[in-house]
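Illustration 12: CxC2-like cysteine cluster KDZ transposase-associated domain-containing protein.
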Amino acid sequence: MAETRGHPSKKPHLVRHSLPTAGTSTSSHNIQRHRNFTVKPTGQINLRTTYLDATAATSTENPELELVINTQTNLKDPWNESHGDTGLLSDMVPHNVMVGNAQRRRTAGDNPIHLWLPERQTYPDKFIRLEGCGEANHSCHDCEDSNTIFCCDDCFSVNLYCQSCICRLHQNMPLHRLKMWHDEYFHPIMLKQLGLHIQLSHSTVQPCYNPKPAYDDDFTIIDVHGIHEVALDFCNSTSTNPRTAATFTVLERFHLLSFESKVSAFKFYHCIARRSDNTGVNPIKDRYSVFLRIMAEWHNIKALKCAGRGHDPAGVDATQEGELVVLCPACPHPGKNLAETLNDVVPRNRWIYSLFLAIDANFHLKHRLAYLQENGTLTQEKSTCISHNTVNMADTKASKGLAAMGVGTVVCARHDMRLANGVGDLQKGEKYLNMDYIVFSALSRFSSIPAINFSYDIACQWHKKLWH
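Figure caption equivalent — predicted structure in C-alpha coordinate form:
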Protein backbone atom coordinates (compact mmCIF):
# COMPACT_ATOMS: atom_id res chain seq x y z
CA MET A 1 0.00 0.00 0.00
CA ALA A 2 1.42 3.39 -0.96
CA GLU A 3 2.07 5.92 1.76
CA THR A 4 -0.51 8.68 2.14
CA ARG A 5 0.61 12.22 1.33
CA GLY A 6 -1.10 15.54 2.11
CA HIS A 7 -1.63 18.24 4.67
CA PRO A 8 -1.88 17.64 8.44
CA SER A 9 -5.30 16.44 9.53
CA LYS A 10 -7.37 18.54 11.93
CA LYS A 11 -8.53 15.34 13.69
CA PRO A 12 -6.73 13.91 16.75
CA HIS A 13 -3.38 12.46 15.74
CA LEU A 14 -3.51 8.61 15.76
CA VAL A 15 -0.24 6.73 15.31
CA ARG A 16 -0.20 2.93 15.05
CA HIS A 17 2.36 0.90 16.99
CA SER A 18 3.09 -2.78 17.14
CA LEU A 19 2.72 -4.27 20.63
CA PRO A 20 4.89 -7.40 21.09
CA THR A 21 3.18 -10.33 22.77
CA ALA A 22 4.72 -12.21 25.65
CA GLY A 23 7.49 -14.65 24.65
CA THR A 24 7.84 -13.32 21.10
CA SER A 25 9.82 -10.57 19.45
CA THR A 26 7.53 -10.04 16.48
CA SER A 27 4.56 -7.73 16.18
CA SER A 28 1.34 -9.67 16.59
CA HIS A 29 -0.98 -7.04 18.01
CA ASN A 30 -1.79 -3.61 16.49
CA ILE A 31 -2.74 -0.64 18.63
CA GLN A 32 -3.26 3.08 18.16
CA ARG A 33 -1.69 5.72 20.37
CA HIS A 34 -3.95 8.71 21.00
CA ARG A 35 -2.17 11.75 22.51
CA ASN A 36 -4.28 14.61 23.90
CA PHE A 37 -2.70 17.92 24.96
CA THR A 38 -4.57 20.36 27.22
CA VAL A 39 -3.57 23.72 28.70
CA LYS A 40 -5.12 24.70 32.01
CA PRO A 41 -5.92 28.33 32.95
CA THR A 42 -2.94 28.29 35.32
CA GLY A 43 -0.58 27.65 32.41
CA GLN A 44 -0.05 23.96 33.25
CA ILE A 45 0.29 21.65 30.24
CA ASN A 46 -1.13 18.13 30.49
CA LEU A 47 -0.43 15.28 28.10
CA ARG A 48 -2.66 12.20 28.15
CA THR A 49 -1.63 9.17 26.12
CA THR A 50 -4.22 6.46 25.42
CA TYR A 51 -3.61 3.19 23.53
CA LEU A 52 -6.58 1.87 21.54
CA ASP A 53 -7.04 -1.57 20.02
CA ALA A 54 -7.06 -1.33 16.23
CA THR A 55 -7.27 -5.07 15.42
CA ALA A 56 -10.90 -5.44 16.52
CA ALA A 57 -12.00 -2.61 14.29
CA THR A 58 -10.38 -4.07 11.21
CA SER A 59 -11.84 -7.54 11.79
CA THR A 60 -15.45 -6.40 12.23
CA GLU A 61 -15.87 -3.25 10.19
CA ASN A 62 -13.22 -3.13 7.50
CA PRO A 63 -11.74 -6.52 6.48
CA GLU A 64 -9.43 -4.93 3.93
CA LEU A 65 -7.71 -2.89 6.63
CA GLU A 66 -6.51 -6.05 8.41
CA LEU A 67 -4.38 -6.98 5.43
CA VAL A 68 -2.80 -3.56 5.43
CA ILE A 69 -1.96 -3.74 9.14
CA ASN A 70 -0.46 -7.23 8.89
CA THR A 71 1.71 -6.42 5.90
CA GLN A 72 2.82 -2.95 7.04
CA THR A 73 3.29 -2.58 10.76
CA ASN A 74 5.28 0.68 10.75
CA LEU A 75 3.53 3.53 8.91
CA LYS A 76 6.16 6.15 8.15
CA ASP A 77 3.66 8.82 7.17
CA PRO A 78 2.89 10.79 10.38
CA TRP A 79 -0.34 12.14 8.89
CA ASN A 80 -1.77 8.72 8.09
CA GLU A 81 -4.80 7.87 10.18
CA SER A 82 -7.55 5.24 10.14
CA HIS A 83 -11.29 5.76 10.39
CA GLY A 84 -14.10 3.72 11.93
CA ASP A 85 -12.27 2.97 15.19
CA THR A 86 -14.29 5.29 17.44
CA GLY A 87 -15.17 3.79 20.80
CA LEU A 88 -13.03 0.63 20.47
CA LEU A 89 -11.04 0.51 23.69
CA SER A 90 -8.79 -2.40 24.44
CA ASP A 91 -8.40 -4.13 27.78
CA MET A 92 -5.18 -2.24 28.28
CA VAL A 93 -5.11 0.47 30.93
CA PRO A 94 -4.50 3.89 29.30
CA HIS A 95 -1.11 5.40 30.07
CA ASN A 96 -1.28 8.97 31.40
CA VAL A 97 1.77 11.15 30.97
CA MET A 98 1.53 14.53 32.75
CA VAL A 99 3.82 17.36 31.73
CA GLY A 100 4.46 20.24 34.14
CA ASN A 101 2.42 18.89 37.06
CA ALA A 102 4.03 21.29 39.56
CA GLN A 103 1.92 24.43 39.81
CA ARG A 104 3.68 27.75 39.33
CA ARG A 105 4.21 29.62 42.56
CA ARG A 106 2.16 32.80 42.59
CA THR A 107 3.95 36.06 43.33
CA ALA A 108 2.88 39.56 44.27
CA GLY A 109 3.27 40.60 40.66
CA ASP A 110 0.30 38.43 39.66
CA ASN A 111 -2.10 40.87 41.32
CA PRO A 112 -0.34 44.06 42.45
CA ILE A 113 -3.62 45.75 43.43
CA HIS A 114 -4.10 43.18 46.22
CA LEU A 115 -0.65 44.07 47.50
CA TRP A 116 -1.59 47.75 47.56
CA LEU A 117 -4.99 47.44 49.28
CA PRO A 118 -3.68 46.88 52.86
CA GLU A 119 -1.70 50.14 52.60
CA ARG A 120 -4.48 52.16 51.01
CA GLN A 121 -5.02 54.36 54.08
CA THR A 122 -1.40 55.53 53.99
CA TYR A 123 -1.75 57.22 50.61
CA PRO A 124 -4.58 59.69 51.39
CA ASP A 125 -2.77 60.50 54.63
CA LYS A 126 0.31 61.52 52.65
CA PHE A 127 -1.80 63.49 50.18
CA ILE A 128 -3.41 65.45 53.02
CA ARG A 129 0.00 66.03 54.60
CA LEU A 130 1.25 67.64 51.37
CA GLU A 131 -1.66 70.09 51.50
CA GLY A 132 -0.58 71.33 54.92
CA CYS A 133 2.34 73.47 56.03
CA GLY A 134 3.83 70.92 58.42
CA GLU A 135 5.12 72.05 61.79
CA ALA A 136 4.28 75.56 62.92
CA ASN A 137 7.90 76.46 63.81
CA HIS A 138 9.19 76.15 60.24
CA SER A 139 11.79 78.66 59.12
CA CYS A 140 12.76 79.60 55.56
CA HIS A 141 14.93 76.89 54.02
CA ASP A 142 17.14 79.53 52.43
CA CYS A 143 17.51 82.48 54.80
CA GLU A 144 16.10 81.11 58.08
CA ASP A 145 13.38 83.78 58.13
CA SER A 146 10.39 82.85 60.25
CA ASN A 147 7.80 84.20 57.79
CA THR A 148 7.63 81.06 55.63
CA ILE A 149 4.26 80.92 53.94
CA PHE A 150 5.12 80.23 50.28
CA CYS A 151 5.76 76.98 48.42
CA CYS A 152 5.83 75.87 44.79
CA ASP A 153 3.67 73.21 43.16
CA ASP A 154 6.02 72.67 40.23
CA CYS A 155 9.36 72.52 42.02
CA PHE A 156 10.59 69.11 43.11
CA SER A 157 11.03 70.32 46.67
CA VAL A 158 8.11 70.86 49.07
CA ASN A 159 10.04 73.30 51.26
CA LEU A 160 8.56 76.56 52.48
CA TYR A 161 10.22 79.91 51.75
CA CYS A 162 9.79 83.56 52.51
CA GLN A 163 8.63 86.02 49.84
CA SER A 164 12.06 87.40 48.88
CA CYS A 165 13.68 83.97 48.65
CA ILE A 166 10.96 82.35 46.57
CA CYS A 167 11.04 85.26 44.09
CA ARG A 168 14.83 85.02 43.81
CA LEU A 169 14.71 81.25 43.32
CA HIS A 170 12.13 81.62 40.54
CA GLN A 171 13.80 84.29 38.45
CA ASN A 172 14.53 81.66 35.79
CA MET A 173 11.28 79.77 36.43
CA PRO A 174 8.66 82.55 36.29
CA LEU A 175 5.82 80.27 35.17
CA HIS A 176 5.74 77.98 38.18
CA ARG A 177 2.56 77.79 40.22
CA LEU A 178 2.96 79.09 43.79
CA LYS A 179 0.83 78.72 46.88
CA MET A 180 0.55 80.93 49.96
CA TRP A 181 -0.52 79.65 53.39
CA HIS A 182 -3.40 81.72 54.71
CA ASP A 183 -6.51 80.98 56.79
CA GLU A 184 -5.43 77.43 57.53
CA TYR A 185 -4.95 76.36 53.91
CA PHE A 186 -2.94 77.16 50.80
CA HIS A 187 -4.20 79.76 48.30
CA PRO A 188 -2.89 79.99 44.72
CA ILE A 189 -0.84 83.09 44.05
CA MET A 190 1.09 84.41 41.04
CA LEU A 191 4.69 85.52 41.05
CA LYS A 192 3.50 88.81 39.58
CA GLN A 193 1.66 89.49 42.84
CA LEU A 194 4.89 88.88 44.76
CA GLY A 195 6.81 91.45 42.71
CA LEU A 196 8.69 89.27 40.21
CA HIS A 197 9.43 90.96 36.85
CA ILE A 198 10.53 89.25 33.65
CA GLN A 199 13.08 91.28 31.70
CA LEU A 200 13.48 90.29 28.05
CA SER A 201 16.78 90.45 26.13
CA HIS A 202 18.81 90.46 29.37
CA SER A 203 20.04 87.82 31.77
CA THR A 204 18.79 87.77 35.34
CA VAL A 205 22.03 89.32 36.62
CA GLN A 206 22.19 92.05 33.94
CA PRO A 207 19.71 94.89 34.48
CA CYS A 208 18.09 96.80 31.63
CA TYR A 209 18.62 100.56 31.75
CA ASN A 210 15.66 101.35 29.51
CA PRO A 211 12.91 98.82 30.29
CA LYS A 212 9.57 99.15 28.58
CA PRO A 213 6.70 97.58 30.55
CA ALA A 214 4.01 95.64 28.75
CA TYR A 215 1.09 97.72 27.55
CA ASP A 216 -1.17 98.53 30.50
CA ASP A 217 0.84 96.02 32.57
CA ASP A 218 -1.29 93.30 31.01
CA PHE A 219 0.61 90.31 29.68
CA THR A 220 -0.41 86.64 29.62
CA ILE A 221 1.77 83.60 28.92
CA ILE A 222 0.28 80.23 27.96
CA ASP A 223 2.30 77.29 29.24
CA VAL A 224 1.74 73.61 29.99
CA HIS A 225 1.44 74.49 33.70
CA GLY A 226 -1.43 76.86 33.04
CA ILE A 227 -2.23 80.38 31.88
CA HIS A 228 -0.16 82.94 33.77
CA GLU A 229 -0.42 86.68 34.21
CA VAL A 230 3.10 88.06 34.48
CA ALA A 231 4.85 91.40 34.93
CA LEU A 232 7.01 91.70 31.82
CA ASP A 233 9.42 94.36 30.60
CA PHE A 234 10.53 94.69 26.97
CA CYS A 235 13.78 96.12 25.70
CA ASN A 236 12.54 98.08 22.66
CA SER A 237 12.71 95.05 20.36
CA THR A 238 9.25 93.67 19.96
CA SER A 239 6.04 93.82 17.96
CA THR A 240 3.43 96.48 18.56
CA ASN A 241 2.03 96.18 22.07
CA PRO A 242 1.80 92.37 22.37
CA ARG A 243 -0.26 91.07 25.27
CA THR A 244 -0.05 87.29 24.89
CA ALA A 245 2.72 84.76 24.35
CA ALA A 246 3.02 80.98 24.40
CA THR A 247 6.03 78.89 25.37
CA PHE A 248 7.70 76.54 22.92
CA THR A 249 6.86 73.69 25.29
CA VAL A 250 3.09 74.16 25.06
CA LEU A 251 3.24 74.63 21.28
CA GLU A 252 5.28 71.47 20.77
CA ARG A 253 2.98 69.50 23.05
CA PHE A 254 -0.17 70.54 21.23
CA HIS A 255 1.54 69.93 17.88
CA LEU A 256 2.22 66.31 18.85
CA LEU A 257 -1.14 65.76 20.54
CA SER A 258 -3.01 67.04 17.49
CA PHE A 259 -1.40 64.24 15.47
CA GLU A 260 -1.43 61.40 18.00
CA SER A 261 -4.69 61.96 19.91
CA LYS A 262 -6.51 64.24 17.41
CA VAL A 263 -7.30 66.64 20.24
CA SER A 264 -8.76 69.96 19.15
CA ALA A 265 -7.20 73.31 20.01
CA PHE A 266 -10.37 74.24 21.92
CA LYS A 267 -10.17 71.24 24.27
CA PHE A 268 -6.42 71.55 24.69
CA TYR A 269 -6.61 75.23 25.60
CA HIS A 270 -9.39 74.76 28.12
CA CYS A 271 -7.57 71.82 29.66
CA ILE A 272 -4.64 74.15 30.34
CA ALA A 273 -7.01 76.80 31.68
CA ARG A 274 -8.38 74.29 34.18
CA ARG A 275 -4.88 73.72 35.51
CA SER A 276 -4.88 77.36 36.55
CA ASP A 277 -8.43 77.38 37.92
CA ASN A 278 -10.59 74.26 37.91
CA THR A 279 -13.47 75.77 39.89
CA GLY A 280 -14.43 78.86 37.88
CA VAL A 281 -14.21 81.04 40.99
CA ASN A 282 -11.33 83.05 39.50
CA PRO A 283 -11.99 83.09 35.74
CA ILE A 284 -8.93 83.00 33.50
CA LYS A 285 -8.56 85.56 30.72
CA ASP A 286 -9.76 84.10 27.45
CA ARG A 287 -6.83 83.83 25.04
CA TYR A 288 -8.21 81.02 22.87
CA SER A 289 -8.39 83.01 19.62
CA VAL A 290 -4.86 84.28 20.22
CA PHE A 291 -3.68 80.72 20.82
CA LEU A 292 -5.06 79.71 17.40
CA ARG A 293 -3.11 82.51 15.70
CA ILE A 294 0.06 81.58 17.56
CA MET A 295 -0.32 77.95 16.47
CA ALA A 296 -0.78 79.03 12.83
CA GLU A 297 2.43 81.05 13.06
CA TRP A 298 4.19 78.13 14.77
CA HIS A 299 3.19 75.66 12.05
CA ASN A 300 4.38 78.03 9.34
CA ILE A 301 7.72 78.70 11.04
CA LYS A 302 8.35 74.98 11.57
CA ALA A 303 7.44 74.23 7.94
CA LEU A 304 9.81 76.94 6.69
CA LYS A 305 12.58 75.62 8.89
CA CYS A 306 11.97 72.00 7.82
CA ALA A 307 12.07 73.01 4.14
CA GLY A 308 15.39 74.82 4.58
CA ARG A 309 13.99 78.25 3.78
CA GLY A 310 15.94 79.83 6.62
CA HIS A 311 19.20 79.30 4.70
CA ASP A 312 17.95 80.77 1.42
CA PRO A 313 19.65 84.11 0.64
CA ALA A 314 16.39 85.30 -0.93
CA GLY A 315 14.61 84.86 2.39
CA VAL A 316 11.20 83.54 3.33
CA ASP A 317 9.32 85.81 0.93
CA ALA A 318 10.86 83.98 -2.03
CA THR A 319 9.12 80.72 -1.08
CA GLN A 320 7.30 79.29 -4.09
CA GLU A 321 4.08 77.26 -4.17
CA GLY A 322 4.65 73.69 -3.04
CA GLU A 323 8.13 74.26 -1.60
CA LEU A 324 7.04 73.51 1.97
CA VAL A 325 5.57 70.11 1.18
CA VAL A 326 6.94 66.91 2.71
CA LEU A 327 7.50 64.65 -0.29
CA CYS A 328 6.57 60.99 -0.30
CA PRO A 329 9.97 59.22 -0.15
CA ALA A 330 8.72 56.19 -2.09
CA CYS A 331 7.15 58.00 -5.04
CA PRO A 332 9.36 58.60 -8.09
CA HIS A 333 10.88 62.08 -7.99
CA PRO A 334 13.07 62.90 -11.01
CA GLY A 335 16.37 64.35 -9.87
CA LYS A 336 15.95 63.10 -6.29
CA ASN A 337 15.50 59.34 -6.05
CA LEU A 338 15.89 58.61 -9.78
CA ALA A 339 17.50 60.18 -12.82
CA GLU A 340 16.11 63.27 -14.50
CA THR A 341 15.11 61.18 -17.53
CA LEU A 342 14.43 57.49 -18.04
CA ASN A 343 15.96 57.23 -21.51
CA ASP A 344 18.53 54.71 -20.29
CA VAL A 345 15.89 52.41 -18.77
CA VAL A 346 14.83 49.39 -20.79
CA PRO A 347 11.21 49.91 -21.96
CA ARG A 348 10.01 46.69 -20.36
CA ASN A 349 11.28 47.93 -16.96
CA ARG A 350 9.80 51.43 -17.03
CA TRP A 351 6.64 50.30 -15.27
CA ILE A 352 8.74 50.16 -12.09
CA TYR A 353 8.77 53.98 -12.06
CA SER A 354 4.99 54.37 -12.39
CA LEU A 355 3.13 56.86 -10.21
CA PHE A 356 0.05 55.75 -8.26
CA LEU A 357 -2.32 58.55 -7.26
CA ALA A 358 -5.67 58.70 -5.48
CA ILE A 359 -8.11 61.58 -5.95
CA ASP A 360 -10.81 62.58 -3.48
CA ALA A 361 -12.18 65.51 -1.51
CA ASN A 362 -12.33 66.56 2.13
CA PHE A 363 -13.58 69.64 3.92
CA HIS A 364 -11.06 70.40 6.66
CA LEU A 365 -7.80 71.80 5.24
CA LYS A 366 -7.20 75.54 4.87
CA HIS A 367 -5.31 77.63 2.34
CA ARG A 368 -1.54 77.66 2.94
CA LEU A 369 1.72 77.56 1.04
CA ALA A 370 2.46 73.87 1.39
CA TYR A 371 -0.18 71.98 -0.56
CA LEU A 372 -2.94 74.21 -1.92
CA GLN A 373 -2.97 75.52 -5.47
CA GLU A 374 -4.48 78.86 -6.52
CA ASN A 375 -7.79 78.54 -8.36
CA GLY A 376 -8.10 79.49 -12.02
CA THR A 377 -11.10 80.57 -14.12
CA LEU A 378 -12.42 77.52 -15.96
CA THR A 379 -15.83 76.35 -17.16
CA GLN A 380 -17.61 73.25 -15.93
CA GLU A 381 -19.17 70.53 -18.08
CA LYS A 382 -22.13 68.48 -16.88
CA SER A 383 -21.91 64.76 -16.22
CA THR A 384 -23.90 62.22 -18.29
CA CYS A 385 -23.85 59.62 -15.52
CA ILE A 386 -27.32 59.03 -14.04
CA SER A 387 -26.09 57.27 -10.89
CA HIS A 388 -23.57 59.75 -9.55
CA ASN A 389 -24.63 63.30 -8.61
CA THR A 390 -21.28 64.63 -7.38
CA VAL A 391 -21.25 67.27 -10.14
CA ASN A 392 -24.89 67.55 -11.21
CA MET A 393 -26.07 68.34 -7.69
CA ALA A 394 -23.29 70.83 -7.03
CA ASP A 395 -25.49 73.87 -7.67
CA THR A 396 -28.10 72.71 -5.16
CA LYS A 397 -25.76 72.40 -2.19
CA ALA A 398 -26.17 74.74 0.74
CA SER A 399 -23.13 76.84 -0.08
CA LYS A 400 -24.56 80.33 0.16
CA GLY A 401 -22.16 82.72 1.84
CA LEU A 402 -19.20 80.30 1.76
CA ALA A 403 -16.06 81.04 -0.25
CA ALA A 404 -15.14 77.34 -0.29
CA MET A 405 -17.04 74.26 0.85
CA GLY A 406 -14.00 72.03 1.10
CA VAL A 407 -10.87 70.92 -0.71
CA GLY A 408 -10.02 68.36 -3.36
CA THR A 409 -6.85 66.36 -2.85
CA VAL A 410 -4.38 64.31 -4.87
CA VAL A 411 -2.40 61.89 -2.71
CA CYS A 412 0.03 59.03 -3.11
CA ALA A 413 -2.27 56.01 -3.31
CA ARG A 414 0.23 53.73 -1.60
CA HIS A 415 1.42 55.90 1.29
CA ASP A 416 -1.37 58.53 1.68
CA MET A 417 0.96 61.54 1.43
CA ARG A 418 -0.22 64.77 -0.20
CA LEU A 419 1.44 66.00 -3.37
CA ALA A 420 2.82 69.50 -3.78
CA ASN A 421 0.05 71.74 -5.19
CA GLY A 422 -2.24 68.72 -4.95
CA VAL A 423 -4.90 70.40 -2.80
CA GLY A 424 -7.39 73.05 -3.93
CA ASP A 425 -10.64 74.71 -2.91
CA LEU A 426 -14.05 73.33 -3.88
CA GLN A 427 -16.85 75.87 -4.19
CA LYS A 428 -19.85 73.64 -4.97
CA GLY A 429 -19.10 69.95 -4.82
CA GLU A 430 -16.38 68.10 -6.74
CA LYS A 431 -16.56 70.04 -9.97
CA TYR A 432 -14.51 68.61 -12.80
CA LEU A 433 -12.88 71.97 -13.49
CA ASN A 434 -11.60 72.17 -9.91
CA MET A 435 -10.38 68.59 -9.82
CA ASP A 436 -8.73 68.88 -13.26
CA TYR A 437 -6.86 71.97 -12.18
CA ILE A 438 -5.70 70.32 -8.95
CA VAL A 439 -4.59 67.12 -10.69
CA PHE A 440 -2.57 68.82 -13.43
CA SER A 441 -1.02 71.24 -10.93
CA ALA A 442 0.21 68.25 -8.93
CA LEU A 443 1.45 66.46 -12.07
CA SER A 444 3.58 69.41 -13.18
CA ARG A 445 6.49 67.94 -11.19
CA PHE A 446 6.18 64.49 -12.78
CA SER A 447 6.41 65.26 -16.50
CA SER A 448 9.05 62.56 -17.12
CA ILE A 449 7.19 59.73 -15.38
CA PRO A 450 6.27 57.08 -18.01
CA ALA A 451 2.97 55.90 -16.47
CA ILE A 452 0.48 57.38 -14.03
CA ASN A 453 -2.27 55.35 -12.37
CA PHE A 454 -5.34 57.10 -10.94
CA SER A 455 -7.84 55.88 -8.37
CA TYR A 456 -11.02 57.99 -8.30
CA ASP A 457 -14.58 57.12 -7.31
CA ILE A 458 -16.05 58.94 -10.34
CA ALA A 459 -13.28 58.07 -12.80
CA CYS A 460 -15.88 56.64 -15.21
CA GLN A 461 -17.08 60.19 -15.95
CA TRP A 462 -14.03 62.21 -15.04
CA HIS A 463 -11.71 60.63 -17.63
CA LYS A 464 -13.96 61.31 -20.65
CA LYS A 465 -12.79 64.87 -21.34
CA LEU A 466 -9.64 64.79 -19.26
CA TRP A 467 -7.28 65.37 -22.19
CA HIS A 468 -9.48 67.83 -24.17
